Amino acid sequence: EQTVAMRNKNNLYLFVVVLLPYLISGFTPRMGMSTTEIQGDKILLFGGIGGLDERTLQNDVWEYTFETNSWRLLESDSDIKPVGRIWHSASFSNDKLMIMGGTTTAATCLSCNYNFARSCTLDDIWVFHLRMLN
Q: Rounded to whole angstroms, what are the CA distances from 40 to 10, 34, 44?
């Protein structure tokens, strides 16, 4: 008789990768960003590093809708925005996207707690109210 551990070794897990277009006006490939699900059929993407030079820290918020397979930039009228960042955390609750911490370049960091290879760990929290984003 096989034990549970032995049976699990023979399982095959299959997942389907769907290639989604990301080359739209203003949106560029990136890494180190955060994504979080909203409303069941949408995700929000914040930050990361990318851009045309593949080295620009991003501080933008994008909404992806699965049903229409489309991206939309969410913009704020406020001049106060977080610095671009990578490896941060994000969560969504009550129409608010919360961004916490992450890493940025030392040149743009105002409060560095850690400095390694020209990077800086951030200890800030930003809240985006989705109703106020276009």
A: 33, 17, 11
